[in-house]
Amino acid sequence: MTPTKELKSTAFVLGAGAGGIGCVYSLVRNGINTVVADINPDFGGTMVFGGVDGWEPGVSLDGLHKILADELCKMPNGGHVTEVVPNCNLFSPDNGWNWDNHSFSKYPWGLCMPTGRTYEETLGRCTSIRGENGTMKRFQFDGRLMPKAVHNVLAPYEKHLTTLFGYAFSDCEVKDGRLVSVTVSNKSESVKIYADYFVDCSGDIVLARAAGCEYAFGCEGKEAYNEPCARDASDNVNAVSYVFRVTPKEQRGVDEIPCEYEISDIEKWKSERMKKTVTFMCKYPNGDLSLNMLPTMEGKEYFALGERADLIGKARVYAYWQYLQAEKGLDIYRLSEIYSAGIRESYRLVGRYVLTETDVRAGKPQGIQNARVAAIADHALDVHGEGGMCRELEFPYEIPLECCMAKEYGNLFVACRGASFSHIASASTRLSRTMMSLGESVGKHICGMHNS
């Protein structure tokens, strides 16, 4: 490896997913020189490389998400609004919004198809906005076009932006109670970035953990925050899904499984779990389908498996896809792509304020009142896998900016799924548009600090 290069900037952002994109946008449009680094080859994070290329119904602050939606809709097959199909969808009023009323044997999926609805109609999920019988509406986009949309939006401010794609976090330096620098590396070089402000948007908060910030992993017990749904403390985290994409084909037939995915581990899963798995399916603008297995594996299983997790996860996708093709009539499609693991939850900062289930369920019936709100949300408390639940909310709730602030440093912030949330609260906060708002708000806060 070549000697370490050095860069100096006002702000450094680690991670270019939804939170990182929002943060970078706020910073550079306000003239703040910013370096962003990500292990992936471009902007997008889980939205692009994890295949989570649809925004779930949910209230949000005005901001970048609307600009990106407009950009995507200008592109051929870039994006459109979809709506749940009654009867064959888990979240249908016909089922009383109850999984127990859904026929998994008949419909091992929830189906979401194009509709004439507007983007604004996707901006609300809770019953006070959607209504008791309103259907779920989401914005489905082609993730392959998201990086282009982001670059289009950032183009006017490019003189303030340096991108380091394909670089992973290596190290950080702390001096006199402040974060001083971060080093990122690829196969050929290391780059040491000195900055005044640092934002960890890495998902697994690798920077905050390396800097010695307090963090949590797994379920807190009842004694931690006195949450109504808390159970015994454990290492359970929200389950992991491998999203995959299928494309229409001319001749029917079942896809073959590549030999490397024909592993012995898969037989037990096929007999015990496969036919209990349900998949959320959504149609892309070009006619392909996005399939999100709910779930592919338990969260704690994924982290315990380490490097083997990806092999097992993708083997399960192939086995499950063959089942859908052979027994559920989906052999008119071929599997075209399996994305990286969709991780809903891992390490979480214990910051200046920890958002809890009590905060989420209380909501704000009178509207948003906190001047330091970083984001608003209303997604269900949605835990997949062991200890699972899906509890819809009545009102939106606020996420305070303090959830993004490390206790240990005044110049380190977190704007990703690993911000300061309890295990249960994170089951609601983790959505892309919410993370984008967190990033935007942190960026605005840094601008205010820098200019004061």
What does this 3D model show about the protein?
This protein is α/β, with parallel strands linked by helices and 452 residues long. The protein has two domains: 5-80 and 139-230 and 345-451, FAD/NAD(P)-binding domain; 243-338, no CATH class. The protein is 26% helix and 24% strand. It has 13 helices and 23 strands. Helix 1 (18-29) runs parallel beside helix 13, helix 3 (64-74) crosses helix 5 (146-154) and helix 8 (265-272) packs across helix 10 (309-328). The radius of gyration is 21 Å and the shape is globular.
Number of domains: 2
In CATH terms, what is the architecture of the largest domain?
3-Layer(bba) Sandwich
Distance linking N and C termini: 41 Å
CATH homologous superfamily identity of the largest domain: FAD/NAD(P)-binding domain
Strand order of the largest sheet: 4-7-5-6-15-16-14-17
**Might you state the CATH topology name of the largest domain?**
FAD/NAD(P)-binding domain
Chain-averaged pLDDT? 93
What brief labels describe this structure?
alpha/beta, five-stranded parallel β-sheet, FAD/NAD(P)-binding domain, 2 domains, globular, eight-stranded mixed β-sheet, 452 residues, 23 strands
Note the topology.
Elements: E1 5-8, E2 11-14, H1 18-29, E3 34-38, H2 46-49, E4 54-55, H3 64-74, E5 79-84, E6 109-114, H4 127-130, E7 137-141, H5 146-154, E8 161-165, E9 168-175, E10 178-185, E11 190-194, E12 197-200, H6 206-210, E13 215-216, H7 222-225, E14 243-248, H8 265-272, E15 278-283, E16 289-294, H9 299-305, H10 309-328, E17 333-338, E18 348-349, H11 357-362, E19 373-377, E20 381-383, E21 389-391, E22 397-400, E23 412-414, H12 423-429, H13 432-451
Parallel strand pairs: 1-11, 2-3, 2-12, 3-8, 6-15, 12-23
Antiparallel strand pairs: 4-7, 5-6, 5-7, 9-10, 10-11, 13-18, 14-16, 14-17, 15-16, 19-22, 20-21
